[in-house]
Amino acid sequence: MIRVGFLSAVRHAESYLPTFLADPRTSVVGVAEAESTPDWMLADSREAAHRNGLPFLGVAEMLAPGTCDLVVVCSEPTRHAELAIAALEAGVDVLVDKPVAVTVAETDRILAAQERSGRTVSVVNRLRSPAVERLRGWVDAGHLGLPLHVDVEWFASGAHFSTSVERPELVTDPALSGGGELLNFLLYPVDYIRYLTGLEVVEVYAETATLFQEAHLERSVEDSAVVSLQLENGVTATVTLGRVAAAPGHGPVSSSIRLLGSHGHAIADDDKPAISVFGTDGKQTARPVGGPSSVVAVERFLDELIGALAAGRTPQYSLSDARASLAVTEACYAAASSGRPVTLNSDMNLEGER
Q1: pTM of the predicted model over 0.90
Q2: β-strand pairing of 236-244 with 147-157
Q3: DSSP class of 97
Q4: Judging by beta carbons within 10 Å of its beta carbon (0-12, 13-18, 19+), is residue 240 exposed, middle or buried?
Q5: Which helix or strand (DSSP H or E) is residue 27 part of?
Q6: For helices 13-22 and 39-51, what crossing angle results, to 10°?
């Protein structure tokens, strides 16, 4: 039995808790929050514990020897690195909500702590999306030939902002979020691109803007971005992302991938295939087969993670993968600020002045 503790619960914790509570391989020991955090963080974490029938613990109590085997870090992003390192130093495996950290330098500190501790760090990702896995299968089977270009669209619906984000400032306040929607979302498209092509990003160019959301405008953070990527072997990729007024899909988030290969092309859409439902009120709705992708992808990822930890295996998506995606994001911010392309070296570090 894997004993699981949640270290903070202010962001996304209640998206992950149901899976851990229902899985017979895991036992959730409680939710903890640092006493030094603001009152609203203490209150939010305490209420999350109570809503799920869990004890509310102190951080020292949760990280005491023999209490947990896995700690899930669900704080605001700017505290991810601090809490992940504390858990590693306590000798437990760690699952970090996305993004793993807000800078590459912070991620390197987590990597060093992981190496010292001998424990495993996992990071939430969406590579287990059925649509993405289906597309990867076509690539592996050689149906598309060699990849030439990948285009990804990733849109969150502003209409769902109040229900999909616990508190707006967790996304819009850089002191909590570390950035805007580029930091919040770009890791998913970059993960997709690396997973489908097997290639690393070598150069980026990006433009950001605040086009739709008043909350983002008030904090001077972007709600939209357009990204151009140069990959190894001359392969290219583009990403368009943002928290728009209304996303084109059925739920809070819509994503689609177009992969052009030397022998064909394919499109993967997280909202398709779908079942059309015609209601007695005359309205028509669509339900993605298998359920909403944002829910299904996370559930499948968590199931794989629990299975790997129970069997003593290393999870497929590593901390180094998360670092690579974050390095691309960091480079995009630099490119958007300078108005010039930014090159990444083979170690996924930025070259030249920042």
Answers
A1: yes
A2: parallel
A3: P
A4: middle
A5: strand 26-32
A6: 30
Q: Are residues 117 and 210 in the same domain?
A: no
What is the residue type of 309? L
Q: What's the pLDDT tens digit per position in 74-126?
A: 999 999 999 999 999 999 999 999 999 999 999 999 999 999 999 999 999 99
- Any alpha helices (H) in 118-238, and if so which ranges? 130-140, 161-164, 169-172, 174-177, 181-185, 187-197, 214-219
| 55: preceding bond cis by omega (within 30 degrees) | no
Write out the two tokens for 335. 């490119």
Q: What is the pLDDT of residues 274-288, one digit of tens each?
A: 777 788 888 877 777
From residue 282, give the alpha-carbon distance in Å to each of 79, 249, 251, 277, 287. 48, 20, 20, 10, 16
Report how many domains make up the chain.
Answer: 2
Backbone angle region of 166, left / alpha / beta, with phi > 0 → left and psi within -120 to 50 → alpha: alpha
Based on the domain organization, do 247 and 272 belong to the same domain?
Answer: yes
- On whether the CB atoms of residues 124 and 298 are closer than 8 A, the answer is yes
